[in-house]
Amino acid sequence: MDDWTADLEVDVICSDDDSTRRGKSLKLPLVKPVCAKRKSGYGFHQSCRMCLEKIREAMLHHRWQEAAEYMACCSQILECKSEYRVPPNKVLIRRISTEILHHHPNTTMEDYNVVYERMKHSGFKHYLMISLEHAFHLMLHGKIKDAKQKLCDAEGWKYGKESAIQIQNTRLIQAYRSLLDYIIWCDTKSSLSNKDYFDMQNALNSFRKASVNLKEILKHPGVWDPFILSYVDMLEFYQDHDEALKVLTDYALDENFPPNPNAQVYLYRYLKQHDAPQKKQMKNLHSLVPSHELMLDYISYLLQAEKKASAQKALAVILEMLDFACWRTNLDLWRSLQGVIQKLQMEDNFESIVRETMASRKDWWYALHFTSFHGRKDSKENPELLEVKASLAKILCPDRELKYAAE
Amino acid sequence: MDYQFPHQLFPGFYNCGPPDVDLKVDPERWGSYNGVIPQGNVGPRSSWSFTPRHHIRGETWCHTEPVPMPLLSPKRAFLGPLTPPDPQDFTEHMQNFFTDHSQDAFGGMSGVLGENFHFRPKNRKESRRKDAVSVRGMKSGPDILKHKVCHQTYQFNLLKKYSGLMSDVIHDIPPELLGSLLYEELAGQRDRMLFFENATGGALVFVPFSQSSSISSSQRGCLLYPAGQGLDRLNFHEVEMHYQGVSPGLDARSSKPISFQLQAPVRQISYASNSQDSCVAVRADHFCGVWRFSEGNEPRLLQVINTEEVATCINVSPHVMGEVLVANESTVASLWTVGQGMQKVRVEDSNLYFNAQSSWRWCEFSAHPRVMLYADRTGVELTDMRESPACSHTLFRISRSSECRSSERLVLSKYLGQVHPFHHLITTQCSAYVVDERFPCVPMLKWDHMMESPPVFCHAIPDSAAFVSVGGESSTTKLLLSSYSSQEITMLQYSGGRAQACLGRGPPQALLRPREALKHLPVQIPHRLHAVSRRMSSPAAGLTCIDGTARRGSMCVLQLTEAGDIFYQVLEHKLADGSTPRSPAGGSPPERAAEDPSPPALGSEGAERLPGESQTVIPDTPVKDTGGPTRGMAACTAVAETPEREQPTRTTLNFDHEGRLRDQLIQMDLGNDDGNVAEVDPAGNAKKHSDEEAVNITDGPAPVTLSAGSLATWKQWLQKQNHCGKKSRPQSSQHFRIRTTGLLSLSNTGARDACEKGHTESLRTHMRSCMSSRSLLVHSTVSASLGVLDVVPMPSVVDTDAWSDPLSQRLTLSWQGEGLCQAWWEEELGTNREAKMEALRRKRRQAKEARRAAGHRLKLSRSFDSSANYQSERDDFSSIGWSSPASRDVWSDREGCGPLSELATFLEETQRDPTPSSSHTVPTSTASPKRVGDKVSGHHTPGGTGTPTKSPRAAETCRKATRRPAEDSLDTLIPTQDDLSQKDFLEKEDERDRLRIPAAGSSSQPHGSSSQPHGSSSQPHSSFSQPHGSSSQPHGSFSQPHGSFSQPHGSFSQPHGSSSQPHGSFSQPHGSFSQPHGSSSQPHGSFSQPHGSLLLPSRVSRLTSSQGSQGLPGRSQGSQPKKKTRMGF
Q: How far is A203 from A189, CA to CA, in rounded Å?
């Protein structure tokens, strides 16, 4: 924290560096690498800058050994405490050194710890971010306990007036800590076979600790897939279905949240699991992601409904799925289309229904599915599909002279 | 399972609103994980694992060569400047315009004013207006502009004055307007050089042909690229990628390209193929065309459309053949169904999310054939084309939701249909995003791509399922980004996107740039290096890749530059254990190296191949073994790096020593090339080297040295480049030239020819032997054949007396010693005047004394002497420097002219004085007589100019004395007796004087003729006046005052053309002059001069003998009559 003034200084200098010179007239502001930005400076600073440029170049070309050697040479950059000159961006140097450590063959966990700890204390602005990164590193190496400890340390950290980013980072740290609590909870739960009261208490403690933060972060718009899954899992264990449903519904249907297909899927699965009506949820998902694989479920659900309108709906859903490249050669989907058509053929106004559904597709669907090229390809790769498609071609595109099954 | 959506996504906040982080603050995100998600089933702690969003490691891809290789032989190209122009330089451009296109710049007004001016000398008889002004002097002004000169030295006052007078009327285009327009244009050009948005998308495409067998040793396909100097010829070129040999290589020689000449440079090529037919859409600025071709069929143009506005984007539908999306700057996006017409899909007058002041639009297809992406600089929207008006929703926007920074702008959007049906790549200046269209607004993945300039070209290589089994790790999708101005190529790797969330794999990797290749190539001489580096650093125009990842574990990245060159680099995948995954058919690398050592060769189109086998220089094929017809060729290719020697060596090769000489030449020239002799010659060594290198390559990420085959390819390329660059080299600026024709011509006699031929022959032999032994050809070696040279006589001693101008005098004196020079300066500046006057007075007193003592001895000659006295005084007076006759001449001549000519006269007058100091001289010199006169009259010694008498015999010494004024400083004659009335005389007499000058020559000089032997006294005059007879007025006016001070006898020493002028005044001004001496002298004076010269000798000789006895030799005007009169007192 000793050089926060220096950090501020960097910001000031960077912000009015290029913009005055050319940022105004140039429509597209361009970025320069940080190390190449400041051309002024003498002696030590200049050599530092050149060294950084060399390191950066070596790293971009994945010459890690060379970068590491340069890095060893310019460790003095970090010791520089000149008051008059702007010190090089220490955060950048720390990040670079982390990257080099990632690729160095002889790295030990101790090195990482040292680098991360020093990074944390090189500037107040990035403390939380780096704490989080440090915890990630520990998690990735299976040191969940250590990671949790680091996160707990960071949780209580505060500096000056909290900025929005700082608050969000704190929340993320809390959520990740809760995720680790959940893992510990799972751990305890899996060894819960002997119904030990003490273990039960421990698990409950973990749950309580986790739930507070998880519940908190789920209130804020964002993507919280791992968090909500663990939270719901715990809630289900403690039979708190109302809370679980509420959390999932909020996550899926809150307007402020990004349109996450997974949120719909989680809610749908939960509803399905508890035999609640899922049709509305399917509709939601269909409007959001018409190509989702759960649409197969939707189709079968619609076909079960035994209603004329739902069969027509099923036809529309299938045709829409077939628009997408990823379903075009899916035999099952074509089969279910065949089934729907057969079912509809029994209706009186079958042709008008098909024409209506195909109206928006009539001028390009044949090109998408029924050209002679598709015929050749299908006959080579999937003759069964050719058969199914050939039977449907005339029905779906009655106006066209199709060459699909000509050969 | 493309339709799967990741079961879990990485957590992150979803922030709305504009970005709040500054573009320049946030440092690059090296080494961060950026979030993790847990993976594992509900169980004990040990069963849990985590996946980071940015995985540390990706696949390792290494270059096979340290430099990118050229694919095509270089063609003539238009090369832009290396550095973007500075808009502040617009004045320089204006100057160029004015000098180079003066007719356009000043044509109108010069037509009007033209008849009032003329540039010819006066005496030419030409029909011109009577009052036309001669501006002869002006011409040198524009002439000197051609050269770089110091503007302080070359000042054109006349020009300046005219310019002040007329600068606001003579321009056809007002300079203010022209300047501001030029500034705008230069700023636009600079922006275009830094970032050229029309090039977005890139004009290089590789369409792979379907493979007959999955494990063939090569891959064929069609390369589409623009060629020609303007990049306006579309080429369909079949190329073949070899996977055999030491390193995989690309071969473009097997076929000739099919070309279509277009009307405008190709900006973008987009293609889609359904593995049978390919549909190619080409965008130029104002038209778009669609071609169709397949492996067997030649490309066929289907349709061309003209767009009124500049088209910014073209994209072929991957779903429906023949559908093309076109966007243009009028912000209209249309769906063009080839053969059926255009359908406007979306019109957007403003930018999507905020005002980015950009009319750039982009559109792409998406996973649904009727949903398109509509992008501008602020974001991307998904637009459904079926509905009207099109409904759309945000896919991506510059905002906090995608963690953008402020002033970040969208640069490129690309549908990654080959990789994942729902993925899109979006790049900005600092980041690259992978966006899943099923989950809009939140990017799946974000990188800092760390490129200098924004990436505008992109190529995606799908992950190859085949690798999963080989490598153990799951394979990655590769994204290649390339920028325009800096030529960078960056490879990003990621995996996932289906059941798993997207993971970034490893940090970005920079690939090789052509502009950095030069340091690995042979050293070139500077101007060639400049030309080559300029060519190789021309901005990139396209990027593509030949994907061999699935079958070969290698890929070939191709890059097109605006110079029309295509460079390729081959990358190989390295597994963790350092081995290269290859399909079994290929065998292990060393084996294949042994199988087929021939390296990939430089491709060239058949017609444009150099005569002879172009491979001859490649060291793998031994140079010594090349057949007869290729001999000359081999030698020529080998001397690529030294153009100066190219000509001589070629001529040398015409002689009979060809065979022996060639090898020596090769050895020499290659020896200059960075010490690669060992590799290249002899051939056997080279092969060994390349084999060793091939083994070494596996160690590092990129090999350090260039393999011999590639080196040869590069050398050939460089040579061809130099060859074609020579013709297109722009004319350098003009230099001063000295004509040398005829300076060194040989006489054409036959005998001499034979002799000469023998000399030449022997000289050549000497030269060859010197070259082979690498020694210098010195004179001693060839002197025998050249014969003894004539002894050149020493130049004669410099006669300093021949130069009489003050500068020469000063310089001469300064050679003689510092003291002399200083004394000269004192004389010059008049600082010793007081001392001189003092000395003069003293002397005069002494003379008086002497005269008193002598009594009336010289009574007889007194009257005559007095008249001579007047004359000498007149002489002195004239030397003071009255207004110069030439200037009066000018004034008098210019009567009755028009106002313009008067003006011209004025300007010319002032302009004639080259320096400010000299221009001041005129007024002072006119004033000086008065001033001096006043002073002297204060002494009441009008005849005080008298100096000690002098021996007339001392003519020789007299001349010398004038050279050494310091010695005679005491004898200075301070001019006296100048009444204002004299002025009238002088002016009136001018005309007569001038007429007299030619005849007078030397005879009119003898002012002191009254008392001096004519011949001797006139001699100094003639010698002085001759060199300066024609000297111009400035000299006169400059030196007149000095003459009176510094020269012992101003009238004599006065070294100017005007020296003859005063004589005219000799004969008349008796009245005024004689005043102090009484009227008695007047009649003498009037006739004395013409007759004096006849009468004098005896008398003068008598006088001089008497003066000589007084011991004052060396006085040039020793015979001052005044002295005698006084002596006679």
A: 7
Which pLDDT value is given to residue B364?
93
pLDDT tens string B467-515: 444 444 678 899 999 999 889 999 999 998 888 899 999 999 999 999 8
Buried b (16+ CB within 10 A) or exposed e, B1050-1073: bbbbbbbbbbbbbbbbbbbbbebb
Pairing status of strand B391-397 against strand B379-384: antiparallel
Q: Which helix (H) or strand (E) holds B1098?
A: helix B1081-1109
B533-564: pLDDT as tens digits: 889 989 999 999 998 877 778 889 999 999 99
More confident residue, B641 or B836: B836
Using an 8 Å CB-CB cutoff, list chain A residues near B440.
Answer: 258-259
Backbone angles phi, psi at B545, to 5 degrees: -145, 140
Using CA atoms, how far apart are residues B549 and B573, in angstroms rounded to an integer?
8
pLDDT tens track for A205-226: 888 888 998 998 999 999 999 9
Find where tokens 């320069």 sit. Answer: A32
Q: Best residue in B22, B26, B36 to probe A by mutation, most A CBs within 10 Å? A: B36
- Cis peptide preceding B648, ω within 30 of 0: no
Measured distance CA(B620)–CA(A299) in Å, rounded:
67
Calculate mean pLDDT across residues A85-100: 75
Q: Which of residues 293-332 of A touch B (CB under 8 A)?
A: 293, 323-327
More confident residue, A25 or B422: B422
Of the candidate ranges A120-124, A199-203, B263-267, B643-647, the one whose mean pLDDT is the lowest: B643-647
How do residues B677-708 score in pLDDT, each as one tens digit? Answer: 333 333 333 333 333 333 333 334 567 788 88
Given CA atoms B677, B681, B684, B690 in this order, what sign does their dihedral have?
A: positive
- B504 to chain A, minimum CA–CA distance in Å? 14
CA distances from B592 to A280, B582, B963, B1097, B1120 (A): 63, 12, 94, 116, 113
| Tokens standing for residue B704 | 């350090």
What is the rounded distance in angstroms from the CA atom of residue B871 to the CA atom of residue B1065? Answer: 9
Q: Do A15 and B22 touch (CB under 8 A)?
A: yes
Bridge-partner residues for B189, per DSSP? Answer: none
* Token pair belonging to B486: 């800096």
Residue pointed to by tokens 């019109």: B347
- Backbone phi and psi for residue B324, each to the nearest 5 degrees, phi listed first: -135, 135
Residues of B in contact with A231 (CB under 8 A): none
Residue B190 with chain A: CB contacts under 8 Å = 22, 26
Please give the ipTM for the structure prediction.
Answer: 0.90
Query: What's the pLDDT score for residue B366?
Result: 92
pLDDT of residue B1123 exceeding 60: no
**Alpha-carbon distance B94 to B178, whole Å?**
8
Say whether B28 and A223 touch across the interface (CB within 8 A): no
Find chain B residues with C-beta within 8 A of A140's C-beta. 33, 36, 50, 52
Find which of A12, A13, A30, A55 to mutate to test the B interface (most B CBs within 10 Å of its CB): A30
**How far is the C-alpha of B137 from the C-alpha of B132, rounded, in Å?**
15
What whole-number distance in Å separates Cα of residue B631 and Cα of residue B659? 8
Could you check whether the bond before residue B998 is cis, i.e. omega within 30 degrees of 0? no
User: Residue B100 contacts by C-beta under 8 Å, 6 or more apart in sequence?
Assistant: none
- The pLDDT tens digits of the residues spanning B786-833 come to 666 667 777 777 777 777 788 888 888 888 888 888 888 888 888 788
B227, B259 in Cβ contact below 8 A?
yes
Q: Which of B4, B490, B701 sits opposite A293 (nearest CB)?
A: B4
Q: Cβ–Cβ of A324/B411 closer than 8 Å?
A: no
User: Do the Cβ atoms of B417 and A325 come within 8 Å?
Assistant: yes
Cα B373 from Cα B383, distance rounded (Å)? 6
Cross-strand bridge partners of residue B375: B362, B380
